[in-house]
Write a structure and sequence with these properties.
Elements: H1 3-15, H2 20-34, E1 50-61, E2 64-77, E3 82-93, E4 99-111, E5 116-127, E6 132-141, E7 146-157, E8 160-169, E9 177-185, H3 189-195
Antiparallel strand pairs: 1-2, 2-3, 3-4, 4-5, 5-6, 6-7, 7-8, 8-9
Length: 196
């Protein structure tokens, strides 16, 4: 091929407008260079700080044990001051450290630093004197030694039965308050009024 014909062909190719495919490729390269990819970070997940079986948590006032919480399984989250406890048995002690009552529940939310406990499912308390309480939910504050709930409770003492909503009491179930829709069967009103 003659060198002039080759040069003429190259200059003709250079004078031709770029193809549509070439333009699209250039636009893609330019647009990808100009934008910065934004990465979306997932929200931080909270993982347990510890997990144990057959664990015991103890609340003290001075050197006196006030509450002993036994859990079949406990999962703790130290950053949130919370632990989920399953298969719960709680022993309550009076101000002198003498055992006063037992609480059982399916599960609980435990706040160690706040010295609090919230129990759920098949909640039952039995005092050493034989008084019994049943509920679905109770909350316990070890600092002021108050058990309470806005929910429904049934309390049995000998042949007396009391039930109602908005319960508050000490762990010995000696000073009981029921706020709403109170019903019951009472054989000894003096004993009842002494406990309220």
């Amino acid at each position: 091929m003659h060198p002039r014909a080759k040069g003429a062909r190259q200059s003709a190719a250079a004078d031709r407008p770029p193809s549509r495919l070439t333009l699209l490729f250039l636009l893609f390269v330019i647009s990808s260079c100009g934008t910065q990819e934004t990465t979306v970070k997932p929200p931080p997940q909270s993982f347990p700080s510890s997990e144990a079986t057959n664990a015991t948590t103890v609340f003290l006032t001075g050197a006196v044990v006030t509450t002993k919480i036994k859990s079949e399984r406990i999962v703790s989250y130290a950053d949130r001051d919370s632990a989920w406890s399953h298969g719960l048995l709680v022993d309550f002690f009076d101000a002198e450290g003498k055992h006063s009552s037992v609480l059982r529940a399916d599960s609980a939310l435990l706040r160690e630093r706040r010295r609090g406990l919230e129990v759920f499912g098949n909640v039952g308390i039995t005092t050493d004197k034989g008084t019994k309480l049943k509920s679905d939910h109770l909350a316990w504050n070890d600092s002021n030694r108050v058990i309470h709930t806005d929910g429904y409770v049934v309390i049995t003492r000998d042949k007396d039965v009391m039930a109602g909503y908005g319960f508050e009491s000490d762990p010995e179930l000696t000073h009981i308050k029921l706020r709403r829709q109170v019903t019951g069967t009472v054989t000894d009103t003096k004993k009842l009024t002494d406990s309220l």
